[in-house]
Amino acid sequence: MQGIATSFLAKMISSVSLANAGGVASSSILAGLPSVAKAAAVVIGGAVAVGAVPVVLGAIGFTGAGITASSLAAKMMSASAIANGGGVAAGSLVATLQSVGAAGLSLTSKLIVGSAGSALMGYMV
Do the Cβ atoms of 55 and 101 come closer than 8 Å? Predict the structure, then answer.
């Protein structure tokens, strides 16, 4: 991720320099690449977004075996239980994240997350 940020920063700096010199700058990171490469980047962005969901949820403590002790998920569950008088409300953020952490994303959710990832990557390239 740091490489992408560094590349993006370098592209921004060179674009500003070129614009200040009276040239034309492109706003895209992949401006010189063919549209097939851009389309591939958009597809990859959607796939990475869908693939990242279980990894990120597992990292914060929402796992298939339940909520990991002393994790961010445990703190969220505690706060939710205190706010709701001792139990986590069905349909709450914590309940939904635990469900996704345990069972994975539904097909509809995969389509939504994949579309969002593709849109974000399309915006970046």
Answer: no
Structure confidence by residue, pLDDT tens digits, 16-56: 444 444 444 455 565 666 788 888 888 999 999 999 999 99
Rg (CA), the chain: 20
| DSSP H or E segment with residue 62 | strand 62-63
Q: Are residues 46 and 84 in the same domain?
A: yes
> CA 112, CA 57: separation in Å to the nearest integer?
17
Contacts of 3 (CB under 8 A, 6+ apart): none
- pLDDT band at 123; cut points 50, 70, 90: confident
Q: Is the pTM of this model over 0.85?
A: no
Number of domains present in the structure of the chain: 2
